[in-house]
Predict the 3D structure of the following.
Amino acid sequence: MRKSLRIGVLALQGAFREHVRALRRLGAEAVEVRLPEDLEGLDGLVIPGGESTTIMRLARIYGLDDAIRRFHGALFGTCAGMIVLDQEHLALADLEVERNAYGRQVRSFEADVRLADDDLPLRGVFIRAPRVRELGSGVEVLGELDGDPVLVRDGGVLLAAFHPELTDDLRVHALFLELAKKMRASRPPGVPLPKEASARRAGPYKRYGQAPSAKHPAGCGVSPPRSPAPPGASGRRPGGRDVGPL
Amino acid sequence: MAEFGTLRVKTGLAEMLKGGVIMDVVDADQARIAEEAGACAVMALERVPADIRSEGGVARMSDPQKIVEIQEAVSIPVMAKCRIGHFAEAQILEALEVDYIDESEVLTPADLEHHVDKWQFTVPFVCGATNLGEALRRISEGAAMIRTKGEAGTGDIVNAVTHMRAVYGAIRALQAMREDELHGAAKEHRAPYELVRWVAENGRLPVVTFTAGGIATPADASLCMQLGADGVFVGSGIFKSGRDPRDDRDGWVEDVSLRARAIVEATTHFDDPKVLADVSKGLGQPMVGISASSLADEDRLEIRGW
């Protein structure tokens, strides 16, 4: 088995270069992913910050949306990546988020994120950031800001509402690599992986924040998703993803 | 404690726009077409550069009403232009909560000596540049993003290429210099030594750098990306293409949407000629344009900014 982890970074649009840099600094092999065939042989995939409407559109054109649904490595979504993986889009993590929940760019900020198992806070850069609206009971909260979950893990999917790739603190990327490694180890060589994600969602859901106002249905004038995820594709990751606590 | 408007927060949004296309729009309809096509942001302005060129007169900040309508129509970031040195227009744009202000040579300059002191603002600024020194002067004034100017409203890519070659060529030259030569280089570029030194050490500008001015086709976008741009601004190149909207509005919407989508795809897959060939097929009439070299000096927008 290869020793170093091979991680893809979805390079359709957004801050993909920063993720590549962070992953390489931690000793992983990092490659840019633009087409479905680029996912071959990867242990993990990062979906970076950017514009989620742009990323979703470009992903659909080349069939990357389905390819990511079939991908069996670990997933890490930051900001727009968190939106792309939520229930209203690719439905690969059991949560719903509100886009641009803090407002426009003048309301973007940096602040210290409180981590669940580390006394040293993490500086989080929040750019037109999303906010968790609903969290499935199986989702573990790893970091909080003012009571809001901003760093969470659902099985093999790690999600951050902020941008760990914009600071020099590599703890979140290290956590993701640990997850990818664990998932690779839990997969016996030669055994085919389950093809379909299970359709089960794990309620009850914990709700956060205010109900969206009528004027701005989701924060700052967000259009509803154009095509809801097919029912068969929604729900939690396949069993193989459940790697237990880190 | 939350901190707003830090340099990291300002440059951070530009980082998120990379690999994307920012489209000039004059109203909510165009903004929706742009978002639908996959633009990563829109730039609100009163008239697209090609119309400013043909109609003449003073070009100013867009009507705030139009900006609000555009903000309500789309969920992607909305940028808007103010005149060079016109800090009151910038203050109004900040009050409107636009996501980025473009202090732009495309509008008629308001100050022939000074640019806006961009450090005074929470909202980030993008500024145009034709060479490395100009880019670094704008950054020292607080710009959080740079776009090479090109020649707006022409559909001619030649100046965009010239400016990118100038910026990236000068960066490569700095990288080859001895440390004691950087002081002379700073003087030559009329730029702060600290910034010149940072560029020499890192081999890039300290902020995200897009290209603008003259991009009209997917191939143009690919050329800019291959020359080192982080992303592209497209102004007249989209909404001045296709069938004449006065004769056939639906046909025009179809044409401009197709071209906008193709330029977005070309920017992502800029180094994949097969994808480029595919998306470039059957796009209809590109903007007619004017050759940048045929312009009289007083019609050249690139020389505005100091």
